Amino acid sequence: MRAEIEHRNPAQPEFHQAVHEVLESLAPVLAAREDYAQAAIVERLLEPERQVLFRVPWQDDRGKVHVNRGFRVEFNSALGPYKGGLRFHPSVNLGIVKFLGFEQIFKNALTGLGIGGGKGGSDFDPHGRSDSEVMRFCQSFMTELQRHIGEHTDVPAGDIGVGGREIGYLFGQYRRITNRWEGVLTGKGRSWGGSAIRPEATGYGNVYFAAEMLHRRGEDLQGQTAVVSGSGNVAIYTIEKLKALGANPLTCSDSGGYVVDDKGIDVDLLKQIKEVERGRVSEYATRRGGSARYVAGGSVWDVPADIALPSATQNELGADAATTLIRNGVKAVSEGANMPTTPEAVDLLTAAGVAFGPGKAANAGGVAVSALEMSQNAARDTWTPARVEEELLRIMRDIHHTCYETAERYGAPGDYVAGANIAGFERVADAMLAQGVI
Ligand code: NDP
């Protein structure tokens, strides 16, 4: 099947990588379930239900016209409306969007909520663009995307390069064109339909997942040192929750380099630089004083710590980094980003007995709270932060339990990759079986 996938989806290495990892885990399930093979469940899962590619023309502040490419891959809606973020980054192409959309199917299934899998974005780079340029881009992007989405059809959220500002501009344009106020996007501002704890959810959820993995080993987060990569939405709230639970996050990074802070990252300063000023992590070291230093380039994984939480982007933690982490005695790696650890690195970590939480389980808190935002919007209701966080904690514990228990059931105790892939797959596959050949 490997060759067939590569032949049908040429030049999409990230998609191949995500699919191979899942198929490897599914071998024992597929061997036991002839009905899945009979109904070609895997073949159907690998083919997105719909893929939309479109032109996004926009004008910069000097009047120059730019053309970007927009994507929305509606992968699987057996469990509910397509759900998954929009990524604005120059590296975005169809293969990246398909890998993210494919992962999203299983992640969303693991939450236990009624959401299918999708993903989208553009090769637009918001870095260095003014607010008005970002607004004009978002308006042009939504002018086409609005034909394909809706509260019962497809509900996008944010991802790399798409935060509260972008969701606001996108939502405004949707409402203007359709004349409908509906929960068509999640990650909205609190005062206009957004859920409490949505900005925090992915990072907080990943820390809860890491804590559950440690509990299984008779440990907790108290006093553990942590390396975190990235300095965006996921990284910031990972760092915040690590501190709240007594751990000591030592690092953050961006594509230019990383910061080590021996006293632990100061979350307020990081938020000020990244969320308010939209600056770079190098400024953190300058403003923090003696305890922090900036390392241009280099690898954040060189910093010794008890746990590692990659929270930037795909394939950011390779075999060399895994070897260094193992040498430095890392106990757990929990993925805040999507597929940040290469397959070779995952093999090394698991062979060394490191607890490894794959993104489709560990970072599912973001989409879970997005689904709670959809429920609140549908009911015209607003839940308190305490209620949402309680739900988030419950969902992350359930996901951990499901992965752990499924891995045991299939003879792979402690293998969260197998547990997540199999449990997510079974839920979607059973729904597809029940719904016939479509
Ligand atoms: P942000 O745009 O808020 O932050 C991304 C961070 O990662 C920035 O620090 C950015 O640095 C860094 N980064 C991005 N691309 C690269 C690259 N190619 N090389 C090095 N650094 C890079 O994104 P999020 O925090 O929202 O997303 C981070 C990861 O988490 C992604 O993998 C995303 O898919 C995943 N995720 C996000 C969820 C969410 O709710 N937001 C939910 C589940 C998963 P720079 O500014 O220099 O580019």
Describe this protein's structure.
The chain has helices at 2-8, 13-32, 34-38, 41-46, 94-110, 131-145, 164-178, 198-216, 233-244, 267-276, 281-288, 319-327, 343-351, 359-362, 365-378, 385-409, 416-434, and strands spanning 50-59, 65-76, 82-88, 116-122, 154-157, 225-228, 248-249, 251-254, 257-261, 292-296, 307-309, 332-334, 355-357. With 438 residues, it is α/β, with parallel strands linked by helices. It has a five-stranded mixed sheet, sandwiched between helices. A five-stranded parallel sheet has the order 7-6-11-12-13, with helices on both faces. The protein has a three-stranded antiparallel sheet with strand order 8-9-10, with helices on one face. Bound molecules: NADPH dihydro-nicotinamide-adenine-dinucleotide phosphate (NDP).
